[in-house]
Amino acid sequence: MEEVRLKTTTDEEKANPLNQVGLTEHLSLLRAKLFHKAKTEPKFRFYSMYGHVMKMETLESAWRRVRANKGKPGVDRISFADIEKREGGVHELLTNIQKSLKERTYRSDPVRRVYIPKQDGRKRPLGIPTIKDRVVQMAVLLIIEPIFEADFMDSSYGFRPGRSAHDAVAAIRSHLKEGKRTVYDADLKGYFDTIPHDNLMKAVERRIADRSVLKLLRIWLKSTIVDIDDNGKPKWYRSQVGTPQGGVISPLLANIYLHHFENYFHSLTGRGKKIAASIVRYADDFVILMQEPMNDMIHHVEHLLETRFKLKINREKTKWVDLRKAGSTLDFLGFSFRYERGIHYKGYQCLSIFPSKKSVKNLKLNIHEQLSRKNSHKHLWQIASQLNRMLGGWDNYFKVSFRDKAYREVNEYLRLKLWKFETSKSQRKKKLPEGVTWNSYLKRRGVNFLSYV
């Protein structure tokens, strides 16, 4: 079995994680200076940041970022197209935002709460700010992100420039090769919705001293939430804890809070010495890898999270995985990690990384949804374009792993569902032209199957 090759961030990208496309040269230089200042002076508190936030250059860059992310309208139901079509357009929006920031009259709109169905039947709550608020949040993000990026550790990967899930997977593989095959797989219950505001702001204030910027962050944390109940009636309430998923600034704030947890973790495991345990974190998901179970240390970690950080550990999903045992599998970020017997040497255990069963199941559910009766009125070529986009994204994520078995399973399922989709449209038996196979028929109509060659 060959060793899996992960597409990770290059050394050049790691050296310049803040050098991103779409920013002006002046703004890129400012971010680089802030990063360097924060890196060289770990205890320095930054002030006079608000002026950079309300510059038109920053607001224009923020608009381009928010526009590229697309997204649905907030409570005002104003879309990007609406803003661009109306008189004054984007320039008027940014001018009004800048004026409200300068005159200190800016107030955030309520956040529209929506629920995204999960494959297990539950729903994930998301908060959708208005486009105006998204632009201001992005402007603040562009200015303060470099400061905290200088502090963040190499063990965190989620929602960070120049880092990806593939980097986190590569880090886990590296720790496993070091012999750390006993894994504590943690799950925080409703992390984004349970972060205590006071503790979070104290963490932010360790670096940011500008009261105007801090006030903006408090405004967004305390924003009114508009929730729609089962009867379609709106329910209004003010947030007391948490930073809603969906907000532009939320991922950075979530990383800031758990960064300090990582600090404590490294102090427990002996920073500067031979570390007996390693952590890999992607947003609120993290694993701790050890050579042997360190129950006392893990107990201390759990106590720390639930008392000092006031977070909740989901005991039902948090578990131990011992990859030294045959058949044991660790699932993380949609990938499965398992040691299997080598092909050429029976006594050699080879690490296999492949799409998890849950990832395959979720993809098949999405295929089923696309080919359900509600879409039976569509032509196959219309369905094919939607399927190809979905399969292309899945392939782009998992092509760094051993995927042949998973891809074969998905392709067989797709062929079956497509056959049922085509034959269900007519009572007559489906007949293919002479000499045409089902695979070639689907290919002619634009269906692209997953390829692991």
Mean pLDDT: 88
Instruction: Name the structural class.
Output: alpha+beta
Ranges where pLDDT stays below 50 over 5 or more residues in a row are none
Number of helices: 17
Distance between termini? 15 Å
SSE inventory with pairings:
Blueprint: H1 11-15, H2 25-40, H3 50-53, H4 56-69, H5 80-85, H6 89-102, E1 111-117, E2 123-128, H7 131-149, H8 165-177, E3 182-187, H9 191-194, H10 197-205, H11 211-221, E4 224-228, E5 234-238, H12 250-268, E6 277-282, E7 285-290, H13 295-307, E8 319-322, E9 330-332, E10 335-341, E11 349-355, H14 357-370, H15 380-398, H16 404-423, H17 438-444
Parallel strand pairs: 1-4
Antiparallel strand pairs: 1-2, 3-7, 3-8, 4-5, 6-7, 9-10, 10-11
Helix pairs in contact: 2-7, 4-6, 4-7, 10-11, 10-12, 14-16
